[in-house]
Give the backbone structure.
Amino acid sequence: MSAVTVIGLGAMGATLASLFRDKGREVTVWNRSPAKAAGLEGVATAPTAAAAVAASPLVVMCVYDYVAVREILAQPGVADALAGKTLVQLTTGSPADARDAAAWCAAHGVAYLDGAIQAAPSQMGQPDTPILISGDPAAFAQWQGVLADLGGHYAHLGEQPDAAATMDLATLSYVYGAFIGFAHGALIAESQGLDVARFGQLVQDISPSFGAFFAFEGQVIQSGDFTMKESPLRISVEATQRIHEFSREARLNTELPELADRLLKRAQAAGLANEELAALIKVMRR
Ligand SMILES: NC(=O)c1ccc[n+]([C@@H]2O[C@H](COP(=O)([O-])OP(=O)(O)OC[C@H]3O[C@@H](n4cnc5c(N)ncnc54)[C@H](OP(=O)(O)O)[C@@H]3O)[C@@H](O)[C@H]2O)c1
């Protein structure tokens, strides 16, 4: 059984350490506030970050942010103890943070993987727990079996170390865009005295097929061929205009419908009405 070190025992880090421990691994932990480490049974507690790193060939870090990451990496003895090992960084950060950490690891002889956890602590360790990861492919191949303790659905996005952080931003952009749409839909439903919980269920029901539709639109954008195959943009011009008109007449907030209506009309004015809906990106690129 591989030994693994976990640095950071907040809500997420403590969950990661527990998952490794529950799989029978030899786990060493370090946390800035020692009380959290003392509260975790069945793991070895190191007195310093350097001692924790020295204990295992695989080091998983999950702290609040990259300010904390940089402070920990700068602690006495940490760089020397990490040399020749693999660091899996599961602290959420920006693409620039990931590039900086990868450069630091390259300069110190450390194999680097940068990950973005797309789940809450209670959702970790499941066959479908989504974790984005990028960086050193050989290190991922070497440690994939151990990292599988944390979740069964890794997407390795290639060698580019900032790919996971970038795709994390891209998927969060989708999530927040969809959530603002969801909140506006709730306004529409409640304005007519309809059950908003039922609306939430309807959204859940349509999500798998819309997910498949978005995956298709992604292929269209990547290919650059916007020939209409599934959904012509003109249908969405009409739909967003209907949402906008209804919202105005019902005296609801119109910020989102105005934006959607305006973007789709710009695409129509640009001659894209009979292309695939994905052609909207052409006006957003300008
Ligand atoms: N929780 C979630 O739902 C979730 C989901 C996905 C991703 N994540 C990501 O996972 C990471 C950890 O999240 P969390 O929920 O575990 O956070 P948390 O409960 O707030 O814990 C933060 C951890 O960072 C440590 N820390 C903060 N500043 C530090 C510093 N300057 N030096 C050393 N350690 C420092 C804390 O140590 P002390 O105990 O000493 O304060 C603690 O171990 C974050 O990047 C977060 O975005 C979390």
